[in-house]
Amino acid sequence: GNSVTQMEGPVTLSEEAFLTINCTYTATGYPSLFWYVQYPGEGLQLLLKATKADDKGSNKGFEATYRKETTSFHLEKGSVQVSDSAVYFCALQIPNNNDMRFGAGTRLTVKP
Amino acid sequence: NAGVTQTPKFQVLKTGQSMTLQCAQDMNHNSMYWYRQDPGMGLRLIYYSASEGTTDKGEVPNGYNVSRLNKREFSLRLESAAPSQTSVYFCASSVVYEQYFGPGTRLTVT
Known about the structure:
The structure holds 2 protein chains of 2 kinds.
Chain A: E1 3-6, E2 11-14, E3 19-21, E4 23-26, E5 32-38, E6 44-50, E7 56-59, E8 62-65, E9 75-77, E10 86-93, E11 100-102, E12 106-111
Chain B: E1 4-7, E2 10-13, E3 19-25, E4 31-37, E5 43-49, E6 56-57, E7 65-68, E8 74-78, E9 87-95, E10 98-101, E11 105-109
Parallel strand pairs in B: 2-11
Antiparallel strand pairs in B: 1-3, 3-8, 4-5, 4-9, 5-6, 7-8, 9-10, 9-11
């Protein structure tokens, strides 16, 4: 079946550190891949997406590249800020299918 | 635009009680979803509605029913609540790839 595995947290970094959150997927067909972010007490918000192999999604300094050969979509940011503290979810969706599968989430805490 | 709204924000039920979680969106989206979020498990799809008048089961539909009342509203009903249904429930709506989420309902069943 379709599923997403992401690195377990929590992840604690100092401000301006480099961030990587690993995400790998298993899917039939050619999924679209997403990163969502959840701030405390809120719903999820789309952070970035990629719809085909080798696409790079980017937003707010975050990037992720769709790697079909390694079935991965790792999230990176060069210099994190305290305001980036949140829970990050990797997700996939098969086109024309309403069933989106989420990873378990990775909690990031950035300390000043 | 309010986006996706959910009521209530918090609810405590006793085992066996029933309740309906309400969700509405004002973005004219065709597709709407109900998820539950549990620690260490991410979000799991309970039911979805691809368009007004249609509903389909997701990954974890047991113990729930849904109604797509019109294009704007999609409700989730627990007929006989169980402690295993203690969770945070999110409603979402979508256009093409992006899903827009409500703020969630935190439900505790004792």
